[in-house]
Design a protein that fits this description.
It contains 1 helix and 10 strands; from the N terminus they run E-E-E-E-E-E-E-E-E-E-H. With 109 residues, the protein is mainly beta. The strands form 3 sheets. A 4-stranded antiparallel β-sheet has the order 2-3-4-8, with no helix packed on it. Strands 1-10-9 form a 3-stranded antiparallel β-sheet. Strand 2 and strand 3 form a beta hairpin. Bound molecules: FE2/S2 (inorganic) cluster.
């Protein structure tokens, strides 16, 4: 796997997210309160809510539209809701966020 630097972890607020355009569509990159980074699809499987605008808590995100909660490790919806978001490899090295290069190939912007 080749890793591509998409920016500093400081570019994302704690418990925040930013969106990266990739060949698989918009990917939400989340930063947790523990400085962990997760990358998932930005679209909620319920009604396409923008998960990057959701609330990050622990290693989960709550969709801003109807409050479905997704585990950022597995992408699986929690509780009674049934659905799953795609998750992608992401890591932090020396303060830089790295995503899987094959995912970002043909990145739009
Ligand atoms: S669109 Fe995400 S919970 Fe409804």
């Amino acid at each position: 796997m080749s890793w591509i630097d998409i920016g500093s972890i400081e570019d994302i607020p704690l418990r925040g997210a930013r969106v990266v355009k990739t060949k698989v569509g918009c990917v939400a990159v989340f930063r947790t309160s523990e400085n962990e980074v997760f990358a998932t699809s930005d679209r909620c499987p319920h009604k396409n809510g923008p998960l990057s605008e959701g609330i990050v808590h622990g290693q989960s995100v709550t969709c801003p539209l109807h409050n479905w909660v997704f585990d950022l490790n597995t992408g699986v919806a929690q509780g009674a809701d049934e659905g799953q978001i795609d998750t992608y490899p992401a890591k932090v090295e020396a303060g830089r966020i790295l995503l899987d290069g094959t995912l970002l190939m043909n990145r739009a912007a």
